[in-house]
From TrEMBL:
InterPro entries tied to this protein: AAA_22, P-loop_NTPase
Segments crossing the lipid bilayer: none
All residue ranges annotated as the ORC1/DEAH AAA+ ATPase domain in the record: 31-153
Coiled-coil blocks: none
Pfam families named among the record's database cross-references: AAA_22 (PF13401)
Top-level lineage group: Bacteria
Protein name per its UniProtKB record: AAA family ATPase
């Protein structure tokens, strides 16, 4: 945790439109929150920012501590897990969703942060959101990983309207939209 805070202070620096976001992410690392949702207009640089966060954290830490993945456009839970495992250099073949989840829990326990880009793809349906947050709640509870979502659509209103209090209580929301 201290290494990531040092990274945020030294490596990210100052002087760009993302200064406030950097500060909020630093607060996120030291908070009790498990999830952070960042939304902003398409083309503002969220994906590039997320990529740099992961690259720089992995460069500063001894082992890979950050992993970046996208939410598949189909949004299925199994596809998300497979995509994430592949980002961690694993090749999940012909496994059930439960077997994939077990493999994910074992592997991701080595990481400090999971950055999920294109999170607006989760908003395809309420059922998908509920399944995703059920999965990620289990992952966070069993591994102590922090989860940073980057997307074009705000999540807060969806989480509040669906009464996913468990996620809402455990999250920080930040908007790049002025």
């Amino acid at each position: 945790m201290e290494i990531i805070i040092l990274y945020l202070v030294l490596v990210l620096g100052v002087g760009s439109m993302f200064n406030n976001l950097r500060s909020e992410i630093e607060n996120f690392y030291t908070s009790t929150a498990d999830f952070m949702f960042v939304d902003g207009y398409s083309g503002t640089g969220k994906s590039l920012f997320a990529m740099h966060i992961c690259e720089d954290i992995n460069r500063v830490t001894i082992i890979n501590s950050a992993v970046l993945t996208n939410v598949p456009s189909s949004g299925s839970e199994k596809e998300f897990i497979i995509s994430l495992l592949r980002k961690m250099d694993l090749n999940p073949l012909r496994k059930t969703t439960l077997e994939l989840e077990a493999q994910l829990l074992l592997t991701i326990s080595q990481y400090l942060i999971l950055v999920i880009d294109d999170s607006q793809n989760l908003l395809i349906s309420n059922r998908l959101i509920l399944k995703h947050f059920s999965l990620l709640s289990r992952v966070v509870d069993q591994t102590n990983i922090k989860v940073l979502y980057m997307g074009t659509l705000p999540f807060q209103s969806h989480i509040e309207s669906m009464n996913i209090a468990n996620i809402n209580r455990r999250s920080i929301h930040y908007s790049l939209i002025a």
